[in-house]
Hints:
Elements: E1 6-14, E2 19-26, E3 32-37, E4 43-50, H1 59-66, H2 79-86, E5 89-92, E6 95-96, E7 100-107, H3 110-125, H4 134-139, E8 142-144, E9 153-155, H5 157-165, H6 169-181, H7 195-198, H8 203-213, E10 219-225, H9 229-239, E11 263-270, E12 281-288, H10 295-310, H11 315-322, E13 328-334, E14 341-349, H12 354-371, H13 375-391, H14 399-411, H15 423-435, H16 441-448, E15 453-461, H17 464-481, H18 485-503
Parallel strand pairs: 3-10, 11-15
Antiparallel strand pairs: 1-2, 2-3, 4-7, 4-10, 5-7, 6-7, 8-9, 12-14, 12-15, 13-14
Helix pairs in contact: 10-11, 10-13, 10-15, 11-12, 12-16, 13-15
Amino acid sequence: MEYRNYKVIKEERIEALNGFGLLLEHEKSGARIMVIKNDDENKTFNIIFRTPPKDDTGLPHILEHSVLCGSRKYPVKDPFVELAKGSLNTFLNAMTYPDKTMYPVASCNNQDFRNLVDVYMDAVLYPNIYNDPRILQQEGWHYELEALESDMTYNGVVYNEMKGASSNPEQVLFRQIQTALFPNHPYGYDSGGEPDAITDLTQEQFVDFHKTFYHPSNSYIFLYGDLDITEQLTWLDETYLNDFEKIKVDSELVRVEPFKDRNHVTKSYAVGQETNTDNKAYLSYNVAFDKPGSQSENLGLEVMEYLLLDAPGAPLKEALLKLNIAEDIFGSYDSGLRQPTFSIIAKNTNVEHEALFVETIESVLGKIALEGFSRRKIEAAINYFEFKVREADFGQYPKGVIYSIKALDTWLYDGDPFENFAYDEAFRQLRESVENGCFTSLISTYLLDNPHTALLRLIPDAQMLAKKEKQLKEKLHQYGSTLTKEDKLALIEGTKALKKHQAEPNARE
Length: 509
Ligand SMILES: [Zn+2]
């Protein structure tokens, strides 16, 4: 099949999704397109940009909010809200990840689907952020002053959101684990934003980030369901992609060299001043892999994580709980990164238990690497995962949205996205490795003999909030002291105007 203005890279039947897969490049703009055509009425579109952060200002996250605040064709200040009201969508959202930002929509109605895609394409490629600085102020941060004698404050949607996130210990933990495993790398920064760093962000950096990364050459466009492929591609080409020339975008996620020595890090999180901090620490044992795993390795590691830490009688969890050093033990395996990560976490414990925690993990893993699990247990676990994959029940998430995210496990790192759906082959390989007795070698290869590890302890700090509050006050006071009375009066007017603008209904302006 030929599609005008697109180069076909690959086409194949995708058995597991009961459909036909098509991988294309838009010739003029360089946009990458993936289509899965099947009979799912719940059509899905997703446009993804690779957005590696280079600091903690939360640029990717603030931009994710901001492009949805009006665009060339849809100049209302909140098209997103308007859209959600009148639409038959089954999904409408935007998400920021450590290395990508995505805009998925789904709908069963053809006209509605087209409208949603049009609003999203226009939003990401032609947002109003260039000519309306109020957008960064509202979504990112701004100074607020109510009256001459009042204290100045910071405000902003993402600023407040991330202040909230920084009081959730598990969010802080996972954030810090990434920094410990990938120091001086985009994964080491917070794509969501650290409140203290968000307020350093300038309008110039903000529009620059959009200019650099929100270009079709840096995009991954996903189409799924019962669609007229030719019609969709022609429309995308004529309405949007054809207006862009291919450029080189520097967004590649470089590989972090494995460590020579284990990285050992201590970080803190804020708890209330009156909190008893005993048994409120987290200990974590973390490993990063060298490259994206094959589908059967990914499945194997998910099964392994389940067997070690989640399944009834999971030996690693049992051994750690038996020590009576922590309230809970859990694990996580994340394949949605250039280098997947595996973590084992002790919740509500004390740092002096760290040596015992690490020793126990290594001795249990060593023992299992030698002796293996019972065949029956592995088979039951594989059957359970296979059932879940084939059942494809993702709760309120449309299938297409989940598949678009899954495709990125390899696609975002220049691999073949279809590989992620070759379940038959992956389960066959996995069962073969059990047959050959190789399954447990995943433990030695990926966990025990892997030098790229980090131990992160997260400790509660009852003074942190007060300390931060004081620093914030000083910073604001310092800034305030550089302002003249006229500046302050202007700021008071600005605060009023922004509030008024936010309260206005969505009239076209
Ligand atoms: Zn947000």
